[in-house]
Amino acid sequence: MKSGALIASLALGLPGAIAAPPGFEPANVVPIVGRALPNAPDGYVPTKVSCPGPRPTVRSAAHLSSNETDWLKKRREKTQTALSDFFDHVKVGDYDVKSYLEKHKSNSSNIPNIGIAVSGGGYRALMNGAGAIKAFDSRTYNATTEGHLGGLLQSATYLAGLSGGSWLLGSIYINNFTTIDKLQTHEDGAVWQFGNSILEGPDTGGIQLLDSASYYKDIADAIDGKRKAGFDTSITDIWGRALAYQMFNASDGGIDYTWSSIAKTSEFQDGDYPLPLVVADGRNPGELVVGSNSTVYEFNPWEFGTFDPTVYGFAPLESLGSRFVGGSLPSNESCIGGYDNAGFVIGTSSSLFNQFMLQLNTTDLPNFVKDIFNDILFSLDKDDNDIASYDPNPFYQYNNDTSPYAKQTALDIVDGGEDLQNIPLHPLIQPERHVDVVFAVDSSADTTYSWPNGTAMVATYERSLNSTGIGNGTSFPVVPDQNTFVNLGLNTRPTFFGCNSSNTTGPTPLVVYLPNTPYTTLSNETTFTLSRDDNVRDDIINNGYEIATMANSTRDGNWTACVGCAILSRSFERTGTTLPDICTQCFTNYCWNGTTDSREPGTFEPSVLIEDADSAAVAAIVPSMLTTAIAAGVALFTLA
Ligand SMILES: *[C@@H]1O[C@H](CO)[C@@H](O)[C@H](O)[C@H]1NC(C)=O
Ligand SMILES: *[C@@H]1O[C@H](CO)[C@@H](O)[C@H](O)[C@H]1NC(C)=O
Ligand SMILES: *[C@@H]1O[C@H](CO)[C@@H](O)[C@H](O)[C@H]1NC(C)=O
Ligand SMILES: *[C@@H]1O[C@H](CO)[C@@H](O)[C@H](O)[C@H]1NC(C)=O
Ligand SMILES: *[C@@H]1O[C@H](CO)[C@@H](O)[C@H](O)[C@H]1NC(C)=O
Ligand SMILES: *[C@@H]1O[C@H](CO)[C@@H](O)[C@H](O)[C@H]1NC(C)=O
Ligand SMILES: *[C@@H]1O[C@H](CO)[C@@H](O)[C@H](O)[C@H]1NC(C)=O
Ligand SMILES: *[C@@H]1O[C@H](CO)[C@@H](O)[C@H](O)[C@H]1NC(C)=O
Ligand SMILES: *[C@@H]1O[C@H](CO)[C@@H](O)[C@H](O)[C@H]1NC(C)=O
Ligand SMILES: *[C@@H]1O[C@H](CO)[C@@H](O)[C@H](O)[C@H]1NC(C)=O
Ligand SMILES: *[C@@H]1O[C@H](CO)[C@@H](O)[C@H](O)[C@H]1NC(C)=O
Ligand SMILES: CC(=O)N[C@H]1CO[C@H](CO)[C@@H](O)[C@@H]1O
Questions:
Q1: Between 10 and 388, whose confidence is greater?
Q2: What is the rounded end-to-end Cα distance, in angstroms, of the chain?
Q3: What architecture is the 10-631 domain classified under in CATH?
Q4: Picking from 3-7, 201-205, 348-352, which range would have the lowest pLDDT averaged per residue?
Q5: How far from 308 is each of 220, 282, 289, 321, 430, CA to CA, in Å?
Q6: How far apart are CA 109 and CA 163, in angstroms?
Q7: 544-601, pLDDT tens digit by residue?
Q8: Ligand 10 pocket, mutate which of 478, 490, 495, 591 (most atoms under 8 A from CB)
Q9: What class does this enzyme belong to in the EC scheme (predicted)?
Q10: By alpha-carbon position, which residue is closest to atom 4 of ligand 7?
Q11: 522 lines ligand 11 (CB under 6 A)
């Protein structure tokens, strides 16, 4: 994820020419299915609107918004039912989980509160994360059979995504909480057509009906419109528009879909699905390196802001672009709408990738298109290539005493992984949210061969140690160093952290760490791989499914029970309930027990565990998870 790697991969060469425009085939147009709302007032251009309700203000981060607390009441009712359904097929020994849930349902704060976090890592993270979500979704075919984990998504309160993980969130939420199956369909009009690089633009067989030149012209027109309306634009505007064409199933690349529109759909308002949280980092004034003391922002469907002690405030998302001063909108300033374009939001979270757009110059696009981009790109300082410019800064003169951004008229926002916290845990460890368990899907490329090694977990743990400073009262389970992650194989199998709630830096969720590892395919394509065919896409998604379910529990027949134990653990503590024996056994197997091995490991090169999924289902009934091929993998580097 370092800039060096990006430059290196760009140097490998991207397409110099863009495919010639194939003919239009209107017959292939699929009907537009439901999704978030196309409610922007003027496409991509932020525009004066009449203020939504009372004049918008920035609020303190001391509590959750009333929007969230109101919504939670509805959602927690839905998750109770969903959890009860989940435990229909997920058995925790002979413990009667359904009766337990029934007994405590009158006090919803006793019921498990689940978060899911999907890391960054480009398309690899999007696909591996999609595999996990597919496994957790009760709508997936056969996902609610024994050994599977369908229904966990329906039981979750929060779903957080960062960078590539935010593309996954955008694909799901802007398309009306669609399923992974539908996104990856092989039928005409599939949303996820990753055979076409984002530099080429969408396939004309789908809903977009654009050749590359029109694709770029449309993008250029949109950004030009925003500039002409008086708003600063950055390379992230181009990037976000391009992403929208790939992720949103809407004509014109979903140009008029806003992120705040998610909150306006009736299904969301009824609490039918989890709260999506997109994470991005702030770059400190005058600093080019984004370190662990950078501010971590979240976009939720109502607001943009942060719990960090710097800004410590939230601005209404639908009114971004309005000129707030000291947290309120002066009477001579208009309310602005449409700034929170959904593509721009996921583009912001993934701004590490926007430098691809610098390659536009090397294509054979018409000059008039290039000219528009060059105005934007050429005016950029080299150091500003990876930022999204939020101008006006909604936190201008807000919290003067603590905010390093209070004097800035524009906010520089960067990729959510640049502070190394590549798993979006930050919003899920906020004490106000009281999350009990986080399923942390890690597709980071930490090692030479693009496998995770716990770096993201370490970064979040270390930040939480500064509880009176930037951590601002957050806590995290104790985790070991990366060498230990590799030496003990904690990056090749699910590991629980924070099982013992006293061995944490304070009240914090139990974290179920789900590292990307090769079950059925080498799912470690590099972060900057721009295209892959549908079969590779599907293989990586399937591999993600195997990771989440431990190959449908064939690697450990108790796996789903253990997931159940992780879900119930904090709730049992609150209600003074004794853990069933099977959970004790699970925690012995899956909880990191404090052992470390910090010797420098050799090169980490895991190989595919299951060469053929069908035969594996028979062969893989192993007495203990530690005797599997994982152990062989561990041996490789402990011997080295
Ligand atoms: C969104 O999906 C829900 C559930 O599948 C469906 O009932 C609803 O009609 C869809 N909304 C739109 C606008 O299509
Ligand atoms: C959030 O809640 C406030 C206060 O109840 C309300 O005025 C506002 O309209 C809500 N925002 C959204 C986007 O629903
Ligand atoms: C779906 O689940 C049923 C019942 O467990 C099983 O018989 C069937 O083989 C499964 N189908 C697939 C494609 O996995
Ligand atoms: C962040 O940390 C760096 C390195 O320790 C330090 O130089 C910088 O002043 C810090 N910035 C802020 C805003 O605290
Ligand atoms: C693209 O090419 C034009 C003409 O050669 C040049 O003026 C411009 O600086 C280049 N832009 C970028 C971003 O490299
Ligand atoms: C914040 O600083 C600005 C500029 O120094 C000042 O005008 C404003 O009154 C300050 N706001 C507060 C609430 O102190
Ligand atoms: C873990 O990942 C970090 C970040 O990429 C890297 O610097 C470090 O060398 C890696 N360590 C191991 C043991 O893989
Ligand atoms: C903790 O955070 C404060 C304020 O953000 C900072 O000044 C201090 O250097 C940090 N301490 C450590 C050990 O990082
Ligand atoms: C697990 O289930 C999924 C979905 O039903 C299936 O595609 C996959 O082949 C199964 N894997 C194994 C190892 O049985
Ligand atoms: C937590 O566990 C670690 C590793 O075993 C140990 O070093 C530390 O002392 C424990 N801390 C607490 C507060 O129990
Ligand atoms: C994926 O990882 C394997 C080792 O686990 C390695 O041999 C292979 O080169 C890696 N592929 C990429 C694209 O990095
Ligand atoms: C728990 C905690 O330390 N909260 C602090 C977070 O930051 C704000 C703003 O600086 C403080 O007012 C809180 O006390």
A1: 388
A2: 26
A3: 3-Layer(aba) Sandwich (3.40)
A4: 3-7
A5: 35, 11, 18, 22, 10
A6: 31
A7: 999 999 999 999 999 999 999 999 999 999 999 999 999 999 999 999 999 999 999 9
A8: 478
A9: hydrolase
A10: 446
A11: yes
Please determine, for residue 541, whether its predicted confidence score (pLDDT) is greater than 50: yes
**Atom 13 in ligand 6: residue holding the nearest Cα:** 326
The reported pTM is 0.91
- The residue whose CA is least distant from atom 6 of ligand 8 is 469
pLDDT digits (tens, 9 = 90+) for 355-384: 777 777 777 777 877 887 777 776 777 677
> Domain residue spans in the chain?
10-631
Burial class of 185 by CB neighbour count within 10 A (0 to 12, 13 to 18, 19+): middle
The backbone region for 168, taken as left when phi is positive above 0, alpha when psi lies in -120 to 50, beta otherwise, is alpha
Q: Which ligand is nearest to the CA of 614?
A: 9
Q: What is the pLDDT of residues 597-632, one digit of tens each?
A: 999 999 999 999 998 655 444 333 333 332 332 333
Alpha-carbon distance of 479 to 380, in angstroms, equals 40
Report helix, strand and coil shares of the chain as percent, to nearest 5.
40, 10, 50
DSSP string, 158-207: EEEEETHHHHHHHHHHTTTS--HHHHT--STT-S--TTS-TTT---TTSS
Task: Check if the beta carbon of residue 473 is closer than 8 Å to that of residue 467.
Answer: yes
441-491 confidence digits (pLDDT tens): 999 999 999 999 999 999 999 999 999 999 999 999 999 999 999 999 999
- Taking CB atoms and a 6 Å cutoff, what residues make up the pocket around ligand 1? 33-34, 176, 267
Answer whether 466 contacts ligand 4 (Cβ < 6 A): no
pLDDT at 4 over 70: no
- Which ligand gives the minimal distance to the CA of 376? 5
Report the C-alpha gap between 156 and 136 in whole angstroms.
10
